[in-house]
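does this look right to u?? D-galactaro-1,5-lactone version
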Amino acid sequence: MTLLTHDKLLLTGAAGGLGRALRDRLKANCRVLRLSDRTAVGEPASHEEVVLADLADAPAVDAMVQGVDAIVHLGGVSIEGPFGPILQANILGVYNLYEAARKHGVKRVVFASSNHVTGFYRQGETINASHPPRPDGFYGVSKAFGEDLSRFYFDRYGIETACIRIGSSFPEPRDRRMLATWLSYDDLHRLITACLSTPVLSHSIVFGMSDNAVTWWDNSQARHVGFVPQDSSDIFREAVYARTPAPDLSDPAVQFQGGGFVKAGPFEE
Ligand code: NAI
Ligand code: 15L
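got this back:
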């Protein structure tokens, strides 16, 4: 069941893949859903409003945050690439977001972190939130920065944040790796709902995956969030095996949890 816990909820990255998947689902969580991105998000419905902003533009981010009581922060560069755009959107952008949240008294944030914060752990290892970050690129480093920055804003200013280390959130798992990392859209919404509605969130790191039989992540340190996944990649296993080759165990993309991201770069800017 989705609890309506917030009056005005801000969704950044609303024009992106997950933003579009969550837009209708988040209607149940709030009275007004404010949509933001740097590109157009389409016409607002009667329960929606739109405030566009580039995350690197501090005054625009301030206006985007003013008047909301919680934030689901999905906006930013979502794949590995050159450092410049990642610096602007994910590092400066997340700083701008937390400064605006502090100034406007926002008390809770759900931050879309990524499994690439820990992408250089091996696929044969099970890790939990206490394992140190091992980012697999500039993108993973930027998400690790967001996790640390949000911890600082919790310790210093009391702003609660859930850092969801999203695995692979797509309609279906695309390859064998995603059988371990897959997070259905409905489970992502369940997880965000849990983060928004649990009585005490504090600063929490949660791995975002469905109830997949094969997993590399242990969420036992996030029981207080109350996330119970209801979907599983297992129903796709046979089809994924049938259409994908057997893994080459000497390939770093197969050895490490981050998959192909561990081989990306170097980049010329
Ligand atoms: P996406 O790339 O489809 O959407 C990201 C959105 O952020 C885009 O609409 C883009 O216009 C916006 N954006 C980029 N730079 C911006 C800037 N400087 N200012 C304002 N907006 C900007 O990515 P997706 O798949 O929807 O992911 C959403 C979030 O979840 C991202 O933060 C991503 O890193 C994270 N994530 C997603 C995963 C997935 O499986 N889809 C896995 C792990 C993390
Ligand atoms: C991510 O962080 C990306 O945003 C997404 O596009 C996928 O590549 C995902 O990780 C993944 O690891 O499958």
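The mean pLDDT is 98. idk if thats expected tbh
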